[in-house]
Amino acid sequence: MDFELSEEARAIQDTARSFAAERLAPHAAQWDEDKIFPVDAMRAGAAIGFGAIYAREDVGGSALSRLDAALIFEELAAADTSTAAYISIHNMATWMIDRFGGEALRRRFVPRLATMEHFASYCLTEPGSGSDAASLKTRAVRDGDHYVLNGSKAFISGGGVSDVYVCMVRTGADGPKGISTLVVEKGTPGLSFGKQEKKLGWNTQPTAMVIFEDARVPVANRVGAEGDGFAIAMKGLDGGRLNIAACSLGAARACLDAAREHMKVRRQFGRTLAEFQALQFRVADMATELEAARLMVQRAATLLDAEHADATLHCAMAKRFATDAGFAICDEALQLFGGYGYLKDYPIERYLRDTRVHRILEGTNEIMRLIIARKLLGA
Ligand SMILES: Cc1cc2nc3c(=O)[nH]c(=O)nc-3n(C[C@H](O)[C@H](O)[C@H](O)COP(=O)(O)OP(=O)(O)OC[C@H]3O[C@@H](n4cnc5c(N)ncnc54)[C@H](O)[C@@H]3O)c2cc1C
Q1: What average pLDDT score do residues 123-137 get?
Q2: Is beta strand 164-170 parallel, antiparallel or unpaired with respect to 146-157?
Q3: Shared domain check, 271 and 218
Q4: Confidence of residue 2 (pLDDT cuts 50, 70, 90)
Q5: SS3 at position 170
Q6: What amino acid positions are annotated as catalytic residues?
Q7: What atom of ligand 1 comes closest to residue 202's alpha carbon?
Q8: Which residue among 186, 206, 227 closes a domain?
Q9: pLDDT tens digits, residue range 240-271?
Q10: Ligand 1 centroid vs 365 CA: distance in angstroms?
Q11: Is residue 2 part of a domain?
C-alpha cells in the first residue's frame, strides 16, 4: 500500500493548481455574482486536458486515471467549486460516450467535447423521478432509423447551454432494463429548455429542464445496446460521485486554509483566535475530517481504476462522507470567521453555498446509504 502520489500525479496536481489559481480563482466571486458560465476559462482548461480527463487519447481524451481526476477536481474546486463541478459533469457525460458509444459515435462527439468546443450535459432526473431514477418516464419510440422522444428532464446542469445531452430514456418496459441512453444534439427539432433555475449556489453553471416534444433522434445516437442505459448511467455516476466528492474536498480545503489564516490575525479578548484552545480543537477536527475524506476519495478512485468489484460501494461511501464532511468544514470555517464569514467580501459563504448541493445530486446522501446498506445486507 503506497500513500504517496507518483511524480506524474504530482505534476498533474501542480498543473491543475496553477491553472486554477490563474484562470479561475481571480474571477470566481464575480462569475458567481453575475451568473457567468465561463466558457473561455473552461476551454483553456480543456486545452491542457481537463475536458476529457479519462477518455481515450485517439479521440482527444487525456487517458488519465480516476485518481488523477480526483486530484484535478480538488484543485479546480479550491478555486471555483461551481465551475469545477460543471467540468466534472461534462467529463462524466463525455466518458459515457467514449466508453460505451460505438466507434462512430465516440469519433463523432468526443473530439469536440475534449476541447470543450462543445459542452455536455447528463440527463437522468425527471420531475417525477429523482432518487428513484429507474422509474423515469421519458419515452423513446422507434420509428424507422429514429427514436421519437417525449417527456422532460429536470435540474439539468448545462441545460440550454450545452451542445450535447446524454439522455436516459425509456425504450422498453418499466424498470431499469427498459432504459436506453441516447445522445441528443442541441438544435434537434422538438428539443427545448425550461427557464433557468434560480439557485442557492452553483451560479456559474446553468440548470434547466430539458423538454422533448416529438424530438427525432437517430438510432445511430444510441450509446450501448437498447436496455443498457440504466447500467451505463450508473457507471457514469461511480466516477461522477468521486469527482463531486473531490470538489467538496477542494472547497473544504480552501475554507480551512482561509480560517487558519484568519485565526492567526483576528484578535479578541487581547489574544488571537488561534490562541483559544476551543478553536484550536475545531481546526484540528476540520483537518482530520478533511484528511479522512481525501483518503476515502483517493482509495475509491484507485478501486475504480482497477475496476474492482467493490468500486461502486467505495464510491458511494466516499461521496457520502466527503460531501457531508466538506460542507461541515465550510460551515465551521464560516463560524470561525464570525460575521465576516457571512459577508460576500470573503469567499467562505460562496463555498458553503456551492457545496450544499453536493449532498443532494448524483444520488442524494440518503441514496448513498441505500447503496452501501444493500451491499452490506444484501437487501
Ligand atoms: C443544482 C442541481 C443540479 C443538478 N444537476 C443534474 C444533472 O445535471 N442531471 C441530472 O440528471 N440530475 C441533476 N440534478 C438532480 C439531482 O440528481 C436530484 O435532485 C437528486 O437525485 C434527488 O432527486 P429529487 O430532487 O427528485 O429528490 P427526491 O428523490 O424527491 O428526494 C427527496 C428526499 O427524500 C430522500 N429519499 C428519497 N428516497 C429515499 C429512500 N428510499 N430512502 C431514504 N430517503 C429517500 C432523498 O434523499 C431526499 O432527501 C441536479 C440537482 C440540482 C439541485
Answers
A1: 98
A2: unpaired
A3: no
A4: confident
A5: strand
A6: 362
A7: 1
A8: 227
A9: 999 999 999 999 999 999 999 999 999 999 99
A10: 9
A11: no
